[in-house]
Every structure is written in C-alpha cells, then in structure tokens.
Design goal:
This protein has 106 residues and is α+β, with helices and mostly antiparallel strands. It has helices at residues 15-18, 51-64, and strands at residues 4-7, 10-13, 37-42, 65-73, 87-89, 94-97. Strand 5 (87-89) and strand 6 form a beta hairpin.
Amino acid sequence: NKHFICKDGKYWVKAEHKANTTFKPHNLLSDFFVKDFDMILCRNVTIYFTDEAKEKLNRNFNDSLKADGILFIGSTEFMSRPEAVGFKKLSPCFYQKVPVPAGVRA
C-alpha cells in the first residue's frame, strides 16, 4: 500500500515513486550487489539455479536490502528456509528482511 496502487488486480508503482524507480540488467551470479534497496523484484529467475546458488543469491539480496526491505519473487519460486538467510515470509511471493540470529551466517 505504501508504494503501489492496486487496480483491477494489477499493481502499479505510485507516481511519487516512479522518479526513484530504476530497472537495470544485473548478472546475479557475478555482479557486485548495491546496498540500501527498499525492494528487490526478481521473478522467475532462481528456478533455474542450483540450491547452493539460490542460497548465495538470497543472502546477497538480504545484504542489499534496507532494514525491513522487501524481496518479491515469482510464484513458482520459494525459499525453503527463509529465516536462515534473514527473511520472514509475508506471503507466497513476498519476503521481508529481518535480523539474522547470531551464529547463523557463516
């Protein structure tokens, strides 16, 4: 509700956020991850990755998000242990960054 408008079952970025919204290509397995995102949208990509690559990618997503940031993934994708990489599942496609308990990260 804070960043999107829902109309006819579709979501649109609110006008006041469009100027601050950027879409860029990014190699998820080799490129540097920028920090301080409010939201990361990565749909229908990780279904092609190994479990090891998915875990590394989800950790990188977590590191790139601000506190309480949101990760939005495809409906066919899921995290088997979101808490292990610092996420709380909000719904089937939405995960929120939370502090990782001490000793969980390698």
